Batch of 4 targets.
Target 1
Amino acid sequence: MSKATDGRVLRSESHDGYALSVDDLEVQPDTINPRLRAKWENALSDLSRLRLLEPCGSDIFVITNAGFQHVESARRAAAFDRGINRVLNSVGLRKTS
């Protein structure tokens, strides 16, 4: 979801199954598996409860400002971690955690 340019997550259900998409990317292609549907519904609920997503109608969610900030923080942390690993590897050490 972090690469969404318009900040929308779309949920759809039809006779073909349950699907989620962000922009034009299907993150969960049509499935009739009830466990997968429950997993994604739980994720949407958790993200909404944390105010990282906001429901906008019954099948559309928008990423909130807090959601975008969370994604940017995670990206910066991941970039820092990659940098640390490169430095440690260059001197023959490996990060243990």
Target 2
Amino acid sequence: MFAKPVGDFILKRSSLKLLALFFLIPIGVMIFMKEMHKHVPKAYIYLPMGFAQFAEALPAALAYINGLNPLEYLKTHPPKDQAMR
């Protein structure tokens, strides 16, 4: 029901693809290790997620500091892989 709209939204934004991977990979590793009866420190899970969120928020914060609307900035300065299309 929601998978198609969410998937389309993420596919349109390359930076969100990276963010999604930074969420999915550590969670997948944690589930795998838990099934192997191994303990995974929570810092190994939260650190990549926090870094990805920081990397996602940085361009918006810089646009705001420079007096631009972050959403308008992203429209006028698309990620490099989208600009080449």
Target 3
Amino acid sequence: MIRFGVISEQTSIKNGFFKRRKITAQIMRLNEFDADVLFVFLPITAEKLNDLSEAKLRKLMLSAFKELKLWNVTRAILTRAVKSAYAPVGTTAPGRPFNIDGRPSNIDGRPPQNDAEHMGIQIVTGEQAFYRLIPQAVQRAYPMLNTEKLKSKLGISDRGMSKITEYLIDRLCFDSKYISVYTDNLRAAAVLRDEVFDRTGLTIGVGLLNAANNNTDVFIDVDRRKIRIGRDIFVDGFEADIGLEGYDVDSLELCECFGLKDIKIKYLRNGNKRLTI
């Protein structure tokens, strides 16, 4: 059974934050996904979240993490309002980061990056779903380019040469004959170049990160989680056709929580702006 939490603001509080500080929780059963979702409600509205001091906001979030632990929930997502006010270090979310490096961790045996990890809570960011959907987004972008698909130029920047770049090339190498990778790890890039040539006959270009060529039709920045299409279309998010009614949460984070693999992009985003592609 799938089990995760959602940390949400209150939609309305009659007595105000400082008169009612109790965090509440409620389990919702979603039979469609065979999932139990624990909603943890902060005793504050979205309008008041950003007015809190860092100390008060951090204390509030710690209480929410403790509530998750009481229900034996170890994975959670944040509503957009909570995310905009509070962002754990190590995520791509905006907000105020609270770093507690140096404390012992019970997640993957590595030092925790934030309060959530220190308490054994994983904040789901939708990052895996985002990278998995990049080839689909690029396919949607090709009709906008003033060039044939096979003649289009594709650039990928990846400082450390992660497995993500290998995945992207595997998915896109049959659509574009001109692919270049920019990285600080030239050795790993050269190994990947040879593997791709042996497998497909395609020769990919390799260059240093600071020599990234802007003269590309599509440019994927793996480290910053951004895509440039053409000259002036920038993409930093996708929306899938899934949601939780009444809650403003990121659809890709939901896809990861539900373990969905066959995801279709509903639309592309640049910040909060929908892109009609």
Target 4
Amino acid sequence: MSRRAVRTVFGLSALALTALAGLAGCENLAPPPGESVTAVRLNPTPELQSVTKRQDDIDNTVTFAMDEGWRAAASDMARTVLYVDRPSRLDPYPRIR
């Protein structure tokens, strides 16, 4: 085959494959619920509960704050009521000042 014939065959086969791929990718399916154009326009970021945080982020922040608060309260209680933060007086050796 001549060079021109090879180019023609290659070009036509590439064109046919492109057209076939384009037709195969065009399906007219109904969008899943919540993904219609109207639903997206009404709520473009449905996973966000505030300006920048998802519900998981908010839950993590609340859990972290509650944990910090309880640990701080327990530490304050130990220092105030139980006097655990001072050294033990039951040492067998005298303390050097």
